[in-house]
Amino acid sequence: MKKILVIALFGLAFGAKAQTIESGSHSTAGYVKSDGTIENSSHSTKGYIKSDGTIENSSHSTIGYIKSNGTIENSSHSTIGYVKSDGTVENSSHSTIGYVKDNGTVENSSHSTIGHASGVKKEWAAVVFFFFKF
Predict the structure, then answer these.
(1) 122 in helix, strand or coil?
(2) What pTM value is reported for the model?
(3) Contact, 105 vs 116, CB < 8 A?
(4) Under a CB-based contact definition with an 8 Å cutoff, are residues 62 and 56 in contact?
(5) What's the half-sphere exposure (Cβ side, CA atoms, 13 Å) at 124?
(6) Block means of pLDDT (10 residues each) for the chain, length 134 residues?
(7) Is the separation of the CB atoms in 115 and 20 below 8 Å?
């Protein structure tokens, strides 16, 4: 019984790892941790997405916001884009600039795959790929 408990705790501790952000060719571009920390492929912190939707750079300066309705704003609260519930990503003029699919595939407006973010919230993937270059 002790052995099973130790294995279960080990699995929980290491199962809560970061989700990998990949390029279109599946090379690792970075990571998004469950707490919203964004890292590059060398695990250097590049930014944060807070639980309240605040987006920060690595120095904890606010660079934008994700609103509950999918609106993406810059630090001055000007709308720079939208992420619709179906994963369509639009710029501030409502022109489609990409898509985040349910399986984590990220596509540009021509439906060419530009990356993969399996297990990452659609809004977070859109922020990483389209709006803020971490």
Answers:
(1) helix
(2) 0.82
(3) yes
(4) yes
(5) 29
(6) 34 55 91 93 95 96 96 97 97 98 96 94 93 77
(7) no
